[in-house]
Amino acid sequence: MLRSRGYSILTKVDWGVILIWMALMGIGLLCIYASGFDEEHPRFFDVRNRSRLQAFWVGMACVIAIFVMVVESRFYSIFAGTLYFIALLLIVATLIFGSEVNGSKSWLSFGVVSLQPVEFVKVATALMLAKVVGTYTFRMQNLRELALALFVILVPFALTLLQHDTGSALVFAVFIIVLYRAGLKGLIVLSCLFLVFLFILSLLVEPPAVAIFIGLLCFALFMIFSKRYKVSLIAIAAIAAVTLTLHFGLRPLDADLPLFESLVIAHAAMLPVAAAYAWWHKLRYMFSIILLFVLSVGINYSVDYVFDNVLKEHQRRRINDLLGIESDLKGWGYNVHQSKVAIGSGGLTGKGFLEGTQTKGNFVPEQSTDFIFCAVGEEWGFVGATLVVGLYLFLLIRIVNIAERQKSAFAKLYGYGVAAILFFHTIVNIGMTIGIMPVVGIPLPFISYGGSSLWAFTILLFVLLKLDVGKYE
Amino acid sequence: MNEFANRRLYIIVFFVLTCVVILGRLFYIQVIDSDYKRIAAQNVMRYEIQYPARGLIYDRNGVLLVDNQTVYDIVVIPRELAAFDTAMLSQALDVPPEQIQATLTAIKSKAKKTAAYQPALLRRQVSPEAFALLQEKWFKFPGFYAQARSIRSYPRSVAGNLIGYIGEADSSSIAADPFYTQGSYIGKIGIESFYEKALRGKRGVSIYARDVYNRVTSSYANGRFDTTALPGDNLVCSIDVGLQEYGERLMQNKVGSIVAIEPATGEILTLVSTPNFDPALFIDAHRVAERSALSANPMKPLFNRAVMAQYPPGSIFKCLNALAALQEETVSEKTTHTCSGGYAFGRRFVGCHRHFSPVNLTQSLQVSCNAYYCHVFRSIIDKYSSPQDGFNVWRRHIESFGIGQRLGSDIPNELRGILPTAATYDRMHGAGRWKSLSIISLAIGQGELGVTPLHMANVAATIANRGFYYTPHIVKSARGKRPDTSFLAPHATTIDRRHFDPVVQGMYLAVHSEFGGTARIAKIPGVELCGKTGTAQNPHGEDHSVFICFAPKDKPLIAVAVYVENGGAGAKWAAPTASLIVEKYLKKTISRAWLEEYVAGGNLIQQNATQ
């Protein structure tokens, strides 16, 4: 019985995914070996030991994979809630007993072994979200049910934030892809993207300028929807008049109002007029535009406030570095700069395995963990980097396809959860090494050094493979 | 949920688009942009600190006192070392090859524990000439770098303990201010220390890229991340270097101090403290032995006596007591007292020397009568209902001359001096159990009094000004501006201007009167010098010789205080020294060569040692 089931697993499992999984782990081993390699001292000192340790983690990952495949597939849907609960308990335990590394309290030590529970919480959250949203009676339109789904995401998000592990916390935002596939309105997803855009804009540009930009955007929307060009022009003229009056008119009274502020006040003064106009002409969409304006400006100013008063110094610096507001080559910009030098110097075909001067010279801090992609970029060049990115993209598409062929909503949504998490990790990690994403410390799936993340990603992936096999039963 | 199946396509398109962005960026930095290859090939950046040139110091006439010179520190980055010609390096640096090898071994063993990329010091202060020789062959020494440093040089070896010196910052300075790192220089004493922040300037950093031969080829990112060093402010000090040198010559082989002040401004024209030292001792890294000998010297040459030594003022203090009594109206110009060789009251006796008697107030200063001042002092204290009240009134007058407090000059470590309070005597005699007679020593400037030569010169300047003084200071301007506007505000004393005339007259007669003038030796032909001698009693040996003076009488240009330790009577050493200083400043030439020879030739150090 057991043998025949084992046989059925071997035939029905998606070997393509497993091959990519193995390839990525292999690449990881080579890169970790390369980044610890030192020709002058070919002895086993601690950095080089990392490749041996990683080999051990890979071996364990294979055992874990087999274990995951052997468990009854219904187990994952039935015990999703329990696993989720245990995972949350682990995070709380980390908050209380955990040890602090690089400013975030995200490690839980058991004697010699240390775990990063947040990696496993992602798996549990993916399962739990799939279970909640995949319920037969779940309706996205029902606000209470949507709130429940959001609650599943927000609790681990908040707990991770409490650990000061902003990078890992951000990962939970990517579950919006799962909700989108389950029927969340495209408009909402678009709004979220707009929010992110607004967030970055707020950091880059002074608040009044953003407010004016939003005002213009709202005008454009109004003109597109209503086609009342005459009224729009009158309104623009009115705003200009109020602005200039405020700016120059107050001068004799010794109250010099800057142009920006005058413009913002003029915009604000227009709001009740616009609302009255909308009410009079029964233009419902116009209220949405007004709401968009008010919310956007509010968000813009609160982002400014949060950035200055809530974020920690190191987070501010990282964001500033990324957005090019400040650049400090000796400080936070150093990692990214050195990482770009390493990858950029790789050229088209790379310097060759163990030939990377930057990789060997330890110029990039955290090279074997968060900045492992430098080794790929430097030693294997653009060709190797494309191969790795291609492997990930292939894996993601394959996972989406596996998800789509599931009959149960649970398995399908879980599949999207897996794709979403891997997508976020890959893009943000590679993005930060080449300077287009903020430096948030999250690992590159299957390649970065570290047991916790490797095992968690393996579990994440193989639970899906098991569900895929299970659908034939 | 299957009605949303088409969303799979959107999601996949989103994934693909993001990956395309990533690949596009990778293509750009790896294939198109060659900058990164260049940086990596040149093997990262090298940070070179640009040390600012320290501000120069000039005298009041624009003569350069402290200059800068460039030397090179040779450093080694252990990680980059390769085989090199030890003999050639040893020849160029003038260091035996064994020593180079030993230093390198030490650096290497240390580098294993710390970062091997950290530059380690091999040799300090290589001269520009030696460095020029080495620079041509620089590519033969991979891992070696030269860091240009600006160190001090002294065109005129003068005023060591006034100017001060610079040395490596100690650990507490490094901890207190991020400007300093291991090996950076900081002003230690004198002007160098007090004006450290103005003199030091602002450091810059240059980021360089290097070629395979280890030569710095280009500045990184066209210097976008470089910061330039801002040189320190140049200081113009109020010292007249000619006068200073002359003062140091006069004071050679004597322990003591000369302070000369321009009364109208409070600017210090000369501030001599002997024994002195050559500030150049402190800049040469290879004169360690001489430096330690200096700090071990029992005569303490590093110690600026002009502000850091306090002495009993002696008879010069009579001027202040006379002024206080005139202000309190317990004495008038016409008040006379007889003196029969001293002042006796009960068991107490204050002795006096032989002079004509009786004397009025002006004459009392002329002949420096002790008995007269016992009367004067008691008249102030006993004017009030209790000795405490009387004493407090007296003290307030004295204090207004800056006695017993830091004057607030820009010379570091200025001493407060000693001016007793009523509480001091309450402790000594019991509360209420003392009277004017118990503290009679104060009448002639002895007892519980301590003043620095700077205090004394300030008293002379105040009398010259007839009742006010400017805080004495040494720096006129930093980068063309006055560093401290508080030096521009006059400090008024509690004495009315009219009371100064009899005192000034007494000081004039002390120099000019043929009948009992105590300071006749100080008389300068053609100059109306006013002065007061003092002989401070010294229980440990020969009395100290004291003199304060100013000139000309009615339009004073210079006020001088001279203190010669163990010099005996005021007229013996201090008065002639001060007189020569005044003559040198006002006349530029010395008419009394014999006096100059006498003063400059006097060797009190040897004389006291043989006694």
Secondary structure: number of strands of chain B:
20
CATH architecture of the largest domain in chain B: 3-Layer(aba) Sandwich
Tell me the number of structural domains of chain B.
2
Strand content of chain A: under 5%
Structure write-up:
The complex is a heterodimer of chains A (473) and B (611). With 473 residues, chain A is mainly alpha-helical. Chain A has 2 domains: 2-181 and 324-470, no CATH class; 205-311. Chain A is 73% helix and 3% strand. In chain A, helix 6 (117-134) runs antiparallel to helix 7 (143-162), helix 12 (229-249) runs antiparallel to helix 13 (259-281) and helix 18 (373-404) packs antiparallel against helix 19. The two termini of chain A are 14 Å apart. In chain B, a hairpin with a 4-residue loop joins strand 11 and strand 12 (267-274). Chain B has 611 residues and is an alpha+beta fold. The longest helix of chain B is centred in the N-terminal third of the chain and has 26 residues, at 7-32. Chain B has 2 domains: 46-77 and 85-237, Penicillin-binding protein 2a (Domain 2); 241-278 and 301-610, DD-peptidase/beta-lactamase superfamily (Beta-lactamase). Chain B contains 22 helices and 20 strands. In chain B, the strands form 6 sheets. In chain B, strands 2, 3, 4, 5, 10 and 16 form a 6-stranded mixed sheet that branches. Chain B has a 5-stranded antiparallel sheet with strand order 12-11-20-19-18, with helices on both faces. Chain B has a 3-stranded antiparallel sheet with strand order 1-8-9, with no helix packed on it. Chain A binds chain B through residues 177, 180-183, 327, 329-330, 338, 340-348, 357-358, 361, 363, 377-378, 381-382, 385-386, 389-390, 392-393, 396-397, 400, 404, 409, 412, 416, 419, 423, 427, 430-431, 434, 436, and chain B through 1, 3-5, 7-8, 11-12, 15-16, 18-19, 21-23, 25-27, 29-31, 33, 35-37, 39-41, 43-45, 47, 207, 225.
